[in-house]
Amino acid sequence: MAEEIKAGCARPTGGPVGEKPEAKKETTQPAPVKEVKSMVTVGKKAPDFTAPAYQNGKFINVKLSDYLGKWVVLCFYPGDFTFV
Amino acid sequence: MSVDSVFVHKMWNDHELSKMVKGGVPFPMLSDGGGKVGDVFGVYLQDAGVEARGRFIIDPDGIIQGFEVLTPPVGRNVMESIRQIQAFQHVRKTKGAEATPSGWKPGKTTLKPGPDLVGKVWEVWQTKMAFDD
Questions:
Q1: Chain B interface, best mutation among A48, A80, A84, by max B CB count within 10 A
Q2: Which end of chain B offers a freer environment for a tag, N or C, measured as fewer CB atoms within 10 Å?
Q3: What's the DSSP call for residue B51?
Q4: What is the DSSP letter of B117?
Q5: Domain boundaries in chain B?
Q6: Hey, are the CB atoms on B58 and A13 less than 8 Å from each other?
Q7: Calpha distance B20→A58 (Å, rounded)
């Protein structure tokens, strides 16, 4: 039976279950080195980006570098309708 | 910015947020499907597939002056963000001649770093000034 999910601030996620699909045949090529994740640094330029957005009833495209000359507060959050 | 689509942003704004904020959210609600931008800023949580509560203050030159990152269940303090922006704006206005000590707010004492201030901060600033009156 389906089990009830407790609603929290992290969005519930799923994933594959059971036995792992047969691993691909090993090749002689070395696995690509995973890039080391890092945080941005204070005092350094913010990485530029574009992103679709919703504002005042319109869908728009926003580019960070269009805001040069202004102070910007960029906020990330876990998801819409996630309570906090 | 979150990993939600702009369509979900519209629904959230129109059906919930606009009931809490008159006229709805005034600034752009950005969509970051797949967390590509969040990844670059270091706030994308790969296992959960969402972004942490990251907040970045970016100055008019595009330089990141400060950031704060919280896990999902704890909300931010908006007044503290505003205080930090006011402090960064003050420092910028004085071209770095003044620095803002702990707990600084507009109107409170600033420090003027230089040879004469070395070892003398205690004469011009007391720890109680770090706290609200």
A1: A80
A2: C
A3: E
A4: G
A5: 79-130
A6: no
A7: 20
